[in-house]
UniProtKB/TrEMBL annotation:
Residue ranges of domain ABC transporter in the record: 2-227
Entry keyword annotation includes Nucleotide-binding: yes
Assigned protein family: Belongs to the ABC transporter superfamily.
Protein name per its UniProtKB record: ABC transporter ATP-binding protein
Record region (Disordered): 302-324
Amino acid sequence: MIELRELTKRYEDKTAVDSLSFAIRPGQVTGFLGPNGAGKSTTMRLILGLDRPTGGQVLVDGRSYAQLPAPLTHIGSLLEASAAQGGRTARDHLLWLARSNRIPDRRVDQVLAAVGLQDVARKRSGGFSLGMGQRLGIAAALLGDPPVLMFDEPVNGLDPEGILWIRNLMKGLAAEGRTVFVSSHLMSEMALTADHLVVIGRGRLLADVPMEEFIDRNARSYVRIRTPQPQALLDALDSRGITAVRAPDGSWEVEGSDPAAIAALAGAGGVVLEELSPQRASLEEAFMRMTADAVEYHADATPNGVRPAADRTGSATTTTGATS
Ligand SMILES: Nc1ncnc2c1ncn2[C@@H]1O[C@H](COP(=O)(O)OP(=O)(O)OP(=O)(O)O)[C@@H](O)[C@H]1O
């Protein structure tokens, strides 16, 4: 378990992490989301003792990182910026880490095999591709067989097979009862991987909820219906006080009713249906809605960055004030 208590980090006049309190629990994958500059990497660095908090504290299995006798056996991590020394072979890099954490040498070959790098174990990591480098970083995280794992943007640079591998790895680690904390900007991937979400914006906690609840609370779900008999459909729905709204593409949308209930009403009214499909909001949609006010860096929506003249008056777009 990782526990943050009123954790705060200020850099001069910038508050990167603002009184964050939450717990990352074992047995599930917890996704860590936030717009650019929200404070995710800073939070992860504080968890690993790479930065000193301005206020509050963070504990890994009840102790601060500095109090952990062999840290890699308590928490394994892959940070975006973490890199092996390019002149060393993959195996030597891991051996060096293992020995400084009292981990037996044989574990090095186990983790190299676990991440699929056994064939290049004796090659210098400087020549590795981005994906191979990520795999080496993950091997290092797994080295101490730790109960807590933390990954910052782990799928960066990985091909589809690598992304699937990471997803299954994380789910597997959580299923073993470990604490898995992962940040990513890839919403579709996060939706497939995480059970729980922690969302921050401008250093502050915005949400700490199960994935399903986050989507349900922050985005719209509805049933989409297509019929050649719209009036008959509206009448059938109206008999139960259900309202359908016409979408621009000619379909009808009903919120707050399940497809089975609508099918039963349509069937009873003899209404022909060409489509009846539940439309579940995406994590991306929910995330955009929740963090709209916490986004510091907005880009113009136009392809060349030049807004249409009509849009150039008033206070619209570009960058909002970044103070918190
Ligand atoms: N060493 C530092 N000195 C000054 N400001 C910093 C430092 N590190 C981070 N910041 C600032 O703190 C804020 C949070 O940065 P951080 O890198 O933690 O965000 P993030 O959520 O990881 O962003 P991204 O998604 O873009 O990686 C940013 O405004 C950043 O500019």
